[in-house]
Amino acid sequence: MRLVSLKHLQPGMKLGRTVFTEDGKVLLGTGMQLTERLISGLERTGVDSVYIDDARTNDIVVEEVIRPQTRQVAVEAIEKTIKQITNSNKLARKISLKEMGLHFQRAFSSILDDLMQNKQMVGHLTTISSHSPSLYHHSVNVAVLATAVGMSLGYNRTQLINLGIGAMLHDIGKVSLPEELLQKTERWTDEEKEIAKQHTMLGFNLLRKQHDISLLSAHVCLQHHERLNGSGYPQGLSGKQIHEFAQIVGLCDIYDSLTSPRPWRKRYMPQDAVEYLFGSGGTLFEHHLVSAFIKHIAIFPIGSSVVLNTGEVGVVSRVDPDYSHRPTVRVIKDGRGNDVPSPYDLDLKANIRLFIIGFEDDDLFNVNSLEDPPTSS
Questions:
Q1: Any residues with CB less than 8 A from the CB of 288 and at least 6 apart, and which?
Q2: Contact status, residue 34 vs residue 49, Cβ threshold 8 Å
């Protein structure tokens, strides 16, 4: 299978992987043949790309590090909590979230069990998310990434649960922000950004009152926008004042935000996001945490279409975790842009004169530089 932007979809193409709605429900199933009506429907969901299968790439498997049903349970737990908070806010009632922690412990335990069973995949996460760019899926993505880092650092199960639940709930305070701010599809103004910054304290105040949510998880919510050099918020903490869990979630939050589409911009390429985070080591985050995170990210994810320095176009078919910048590429177009009669694989580790110069699908990625630090996701 290969990743294709919605602008390049054609009727008759066959889905290679399930597409979910923002609340975790199945929108289109694997193997479904696309029609003009279905493509138009996808455009309205906010999804910018899907995986498709064709004869040239149907043996390339892009696996999910967690099962679809595990993701759905986690998304539903977040959705249920958000709806409860929203309804309480609308009715001006005191928020009562019975067994909130229990629901999230169950949901995260499934995530953790999947990750434990897929340690080889956790060693190097190779997929570009094509889920709906919603708060629900973002929260699950950050939890998966943060847990992978925690596992690499040798955290025990209790630590991983506190980290993972904190990651799943890191943005929960956003549901208490003004609705018009959350619904806005343009960039926030400076004044709106200041209002949005309140989500860390709002979330902390909510979570610390829940008897079945650990104070560590609540502090992840509070501190995930704090930065090593004191430039973060809400308290301007620095150095060891920031809990390691919060730094990990802050890293994962930035990466997933940058590599996901937003209404006002395309997604950034994985290598651009990795380069930005690499440069943040020692300034925004501890060096060892940045290194632990980057070890889990494939710069050229499986299923993505790339361009070689020869002009040939191919689909990444395999990634060696020790040489993520030199994957195996299934060549499908020659240097002149013509389809290759018989696609073939090139292992870039064994062909040192060949290298990837970018992604083929310009409609997917933002080519602007990442000089300024990302603001609140």
A1: none
A2: no
Nearest to 216 by CA among 204, 200, 198, 230: 204
Tell the burial category of 184 from Cβ atoms under 10 Å away from its Cβ (0-12, 13-18, 19+): middle
Q: What count of residues does the chain have?
A: 377
Q: What are the pLDDT digits (tens) for 219-270?
A: 999 999 999 999 999 999 999 999 999 999 999 999 999 988 888 888 888 8
What is 288-301 written as a DSSP string? HHHHHHHTTB-SS-
CA distance 213 to 220: 11
Q: Return the ∠ at Cα 156 (arms to 155 and 161), rounded to 5°.
A: 90
Q: Provide the 3-class DSSP secondary structure of residue 330.
A: strand
What is the C-alpha separation between 123 and 54, in angstroms, rounded?
Answer: 28
Q: Coil, strand, or helix at residue 352?
A: coil
- The pTM of this model reads 0.90
CB 248 within 8 A of CB 289: yes
Question: What gap in Å lies between CA 139 and CA 116, rounded to an integer?
Answer: 19
Report pLDDT digits (tens) over 289-319: 999 998 888 888 899 999 999 999 999 999 8
**Residue 248: left if φ>0, alpha if ψ -120 to 50, beta else—which one?**
alpha
DSSP 95: P
Structure-token pair, residue 178: 């003004």
Which residues, 6+ apart, have CB-to-CB distance to 334 below 8 Å?
Answer: 311, 312, 340
Please state the φ and ψ torsions of residue 346, each to the nearest 5 degrees. -120, 120
Beta bridge partners of 28: 19
The vertex-359 CA angle with 358 and 360, nearest 5°, equals: 120
